[in-house]
Amino acid sequence: MKLQEELPVDHHLATVYRAGAALCGCILLTFGGLGFANALSSFDTSGDRIAGMTSNTALSVISVVVGLALLAGAAVGGNVASNLNMLVGGLFLLSGFYHLFVLDRPANFLDFGMTNVVFSFAMGLLVMTFGMYGRVSSKLSHDNPYWRERHAEGAAREPGVRHPGRSR
Fold first, then answer.
1. How far is CA 26 from the centre of its chain?
2. What was the pLDDT predicted at 52?
3. DSSP characters for 81-133?
4. Reduced to 3 states, what is the DSSP secondary structure of residue 156?
5. Are both 127 and 62 inside the same structural domain?
């Protein structure tokens, strides 16, 4: 399946991908900006709190970079936003697992606390859900471009449903 070609740019799912990327990007930019506003030191693990979570300058930089990437994905939209949401969501989940195992250890260079781990899991699931919305389900509607791509012969028999690879 070619992920970049199966969803028309003007399909209603593109709005969900854009909105999800923009919302999560703004949340991360806000968190990173608050970290910079408090003038935290890089890699400090003293436990400075921003919005209930521990933070340092390194985490603020990562939050701003990822937030800007999500906003860029929202600006592009379509499958780019969807794929970026799934990638960033997966990275948040991996980060949550990593930091869960390094809590209270020297390898916790981003100063994660348990609230950060929970936030990482929650943000990862939220961003990933926005990215996968309308792509994965056992009951996709027959006008869904992902259903049509996976069931090309069934889509050809559906009246009034055009195949995504044909006649754009």
1. 12
2. 75
3. HHHHHHHHHHHHHHHHHHHHHSTTSTT-TT---HHHHHHHHHHHHHHHHHHHT
4. helix
5. yes
User: Domain range holding 97?
Assistant: 13-136
Amino acid of residue 8 = P
Query: What is this structure's pTM?
Result: 0.73
In DSSP terms, which residues pair with 54 in a beta bridge?
Answer: 49
Say if residue 155 is in the same domain as residue 123. no
Q: Say whether both 121 and 166 belong to one domain.
A: no
Q: What is the pLDDT of residues 62-85, one digit of tens each?
A: 999 999 999 999 998 877 888 899
In the chain, the number of structural domains is 2
Cα–Cα distance measured from residue 37 to residue 1, given in angstroms and rounded to the nearest whole number: 45
Share of the chain above pLDDT 70, in %: 65
Alpha-carbon gap, residue 85 to 138, rounded angstroms: 21
State how far the Cα of 132 lies from the Cα of 136, in Å rounded to an integer: 6
The neighbour count for residue 167, using CB atoms within 10 Å, is 6
The residue with tokens 């340092």 is 56
Same domain, 93 and 159: no
Same domain for 147 and 121, yes or no, is: no
Residue 3 located in a structural domain: no
- Looking at the domain assignment, is residue 2 inside a domain? no
